[in-house]
């Protein structure tokens, strides 16, 4: 209803709008635009504060070998932990989602879904406490066993950590943390699987599993992928749990079970930022910028998958 | 109170689509004018253009003139909000505000516009409007109860009470009985005949018997085909429309030989 | 695996009839077999030096195997596969329960010893060993979270109103998309953003409570927008039309009809958004820091907050290590209670403020 008076449309009304309407609509629109500005601001300010680190001579960067040498291992560590979490969490989350939607007794299914959602409500710092106090000691035997028997695989190269505070433990903690995200989205798409297809499958004499394989999984596939990517985004950026659990060294190694794991970008920032000064601050912000770009890419990809699916699902 | 509406050469568009074209009609005060026609023929769109309600949809606009007692409703400086205060509307499905009591629903038009009223004035207005809508005796003991607790027919009369509480000149009704049972329908029809003493009433209905029962004049809308604009085929006194219509299409429609 | 379309299983000797009786395991047989397998697993574990984890792993594996083999023998392959999958997804759910229960138990076990009055009334001012509490941190968390809410709710709610009531076209699409993207910003990055912003404004090394509130807002705004948007969309269009038809301007319709109708959902959504940020640690770590005394002015220097307090008590214990660890766990317990309480409040809001039908 914008009042553009084109000569070809002589009767188009110049819509009369009251001052109240104009102010209210204007401030609503301003809020929306403000959010876009904030997002742009996040990028701009991070870049602004990272520039000194980008232009500084290599010797001044912590480690003395330049920015890429400093951030590179951190990126590796971030990816290692997040991907491990994703590999563990996705099958579990799909299983949970199937259980809650198609296997659990109807009366308690909603409550069970709620219990899983509670996992998402627990603050990440508490997960860190739990990982440090319970999971790391519990996994110590596994670490030494893995180093002994699976040591030929680069991921399980020894020497095994004696504390259990390794990337492997971190990956499992992260897996628990992203479990509710993936399973919530999977649950949603599984319940939306067309009842017609499900009933058709059952009417053909399919067992419950065959029905799920024929009618539910194909329909929910892209939703599960999108959920997994959102979970990956969360795992990449998770800070406190990693900062508390991981006792990492420097070096860029692939091993998950020794003390020579690289740290992750986020936990490195959390641990060093409070005491950092001068160019160190800029270096850490530059690493944060890298993290921002990675998660932004993953999330945009996930949203794209979700939206594409919404266009084709025929919902609404 | 109760004004005449003159419509001349009215075209209604949604974006580039012409939904209704070339309507000329004169709606008499203190009478009921019924609009009939098959689904999608533009009669509801036309009704909503009379109080500029169709503008709620983005891209909707009109060409032509709608004049109410000398005032052009689509004049350059006319605020659609003011038009709607003079021309009230009752919808197909009863839609009382779920967060408000029966009492608050009736004076919603005043309250929502922040009009200051004394308690006694508000009480009087509520009673007068509910009596006007034949609902007072049924709800006078539970005015503080939610409006959504009433039956469908009562809710629709509550909506009528709400519409007449802002004291409009014209009342538009968009299939007001299509969601109601026969007994509630009868109650609404009785109410309409009472209300026409004070208001100009325009009603869209699918029910030809209803049009025949309550209205003085009837307009028949039709369209030539899917994707074509709707047009006013015939506008005549109700008696003539139902006994001896001028147009063949009208006769086909009212005798059920349509489509 | 057989193709799912092959309906007729083995056992060809059966008489042909309209409904052929399937050979089935008796109703309680699967459960019985499973339990038998579990018992065997426990026994096996006991042979190799009993431990609960190995017992459970052996038990579940053997139980599942027992059910599968029995079903395969009696009911055929398709049914056996079905039972196997049933075991698998149930186990998946069970596995997810383990960390939840373990976590809650650990936090209760370690947190309860210092869950006393002193913890809620004392700060850490001049406390180096035992005693002390998180009074300052709890109040700091409340102040900063309240400030973040005060920033996020107006912006988030107005944006949701814009998206539902006004927006169309490209701007609507891009706001929706970027709000979605914004929900994925890592919390530490939000903290860095606030730090960079205030460094530009006030020079390096600045630490303020309001910086934390800004960082939390970056995380909270998209959540508020999404939940409010969903709720506003649920308000029936008929109510808006009813209001317009009474000659009510659009903005009054939104404020006085749409928002009151949606108030329950809005309250729930906003409370859940608060619950999401109240436990955030990383952004506060880099923007607000920590002090031992009580500072309730978010515009004047460092403040204590509960999550950061918990983190430092755990990772930087002083000489009396156990006292620090106890306080850390109690802080974690209080944090969980706070988040759970907000979740419960959110549910209560949606129950009590929902529009009454009156029947």
TrEMBL record, chain A:
UniProt GO cellular component terms: plasma membrane
Coiled-coil portions: none
Keywords from the UniProt entry: Cell membrane, Membrane, Phosphate transport, Transmembrane, Transmembrane helix, Transport
Subcellular location: Cell membrane
Topology class, membrane: Multi-pass membrane protein
SUPFAM superfamilies, A to Z: MetI-like
Domain ABC transmembrane type-1: 75-302
Transmembrane portions of the chain: 32-54, 74-102, 114-136, 167-186, 239-257, 284-306
InterPro entries membership: MetI-like (IPR000515), MetI-like_sf (IPR035906), Phosphate_PstC (IPR011864), Phosphate_Transport_Permease (IPR051124)
Entry's Gene Ontology molecular function annotations: phosphate transmembrane transporter activity
UniProt KW DNA damage keyword: no
Pfam families assigned: BPD_transp_1
Primary localization: membrane
GO terms for biological process, alphabetical: phosphate ion transport
Functional description taken from the UniProt entry: Part of the binding-protein-dependent transport system for phosphate; probably responsible for the translocation of the substrate across the membrane.
Protein family according to the UniProt entry: Belongs to the binding-protein-dependent transport system permease family. CysTW subfamily.
Stated name of the protein: Phosphate transport system permease protein
Species of origin: Blastococcus saxobsidens
TrEMBL record, chain B:
UniProt-recorded Gene Ontology molecular function terms: ATP binding; ATP hydrolysis activity; phosphate transmembrane transporter activity
GO CC annotation, single: membrane
Key words of the record: ATP-binding, Nucleotide-binding, Translocase, Transport
Domain ABC transporter stretches: 5-248
Organism domain of life: Bacteria
Record-linked InterPro entries: AAA+_ATPase (IPR003593), ABC_transporter-like_ATP-bd (IPR003439), ABC_transporter-like_CS (IPR017871), P-loop_NTPase (IPR027417), PstB-like (IPR005670)
CDD domains per record: ABC_PstB_phosphate_transporter
GO biological process, alphabetically ordered: phosphate ion transmembrane transport
Pfam families assigned: ABC_tran (PF00005)
Name used for this protein in its record: Phosphate ABC transporter ATP-binding protein (PhoT family)
Organism encoding this protein: Blastococcus saxobsidens
Organismal lineage: Bacteria, Bacillati, Actinomycetota, Actinomycetes, Geodermatophilales
Automatic annotation (TrEMBL), chain C:
Gene Ontology, cellular component aspect: plasma membrane
Start and end residues of each ABC transmembrane type-1 domain: 138-346
Sequence intervals crossing the membrane: 28-50, 56-74, 86-108, 134-163, 175-202, 208-225, 257-278, 328-349
Membrane topology: Multi-pass membrane protein
Keyword tags: Cell membrane, Membrane, Phosphate transport, Transmembrane, Transmembrane helix, Transport
Keyword Transport: yes
One Pfam family matching this protein: BPD_transp_1
Entry-linked PANTHER family: PHOSPHATE TRANSPORT SYSTEM PERMEASE PROTEIN PSTA
Protein name as it appears in the record: Phosphate transport system permease protein PstA
